[in-house]
Amino acid sequence: MRLLIALLLPWFAFFTIGRPFAGIVCLILQITLIGWVPAAIWAAYAVSQYHTDQKIRRALRS
Fold it and tell me: For residue 15, how far is the Cα from the chain centroid?
């Protein structure tokens, strides 16, 4: 679900993973139509990294 949000509303994806400053920067980038594609790629990458970090944290707890 977060990946879909990252593609449609890249700035909002950053807020869902707890990175509000990056979300504001992404929103500024997304304001331009040319900046939408890099913002979506950046958000998708950040969501992917968030999921990887969560898996590592769970593995270290065990």
Answer: 8
Report whether 6 contacts 44 (CB < 8 A). Answer: yes
Q: Tokens at residue 62, please?
A: 């065990």
Per domain, the residue ranges of the chain are 2-61
φ, ψ for residue 19 (rounded to 5)? -125, 75
Which tens digit of pLDDT belongs to each residue from 12-42? 999 999 999 999 999 998 888 788 899 999 9
Backbone φ and ψ for 29, nearest 5 degrees, come out as -65, -40
Q: Give the Cα separation of 53 and 46 in Å (integer).
A: 10
Q: For position 33, what pLDDT does the model report?
A: 76
Question: From CA 56, how far away is CA 23, in angstroms rounded?
Answer: 24
- pTM listed for this prediction: 0.85
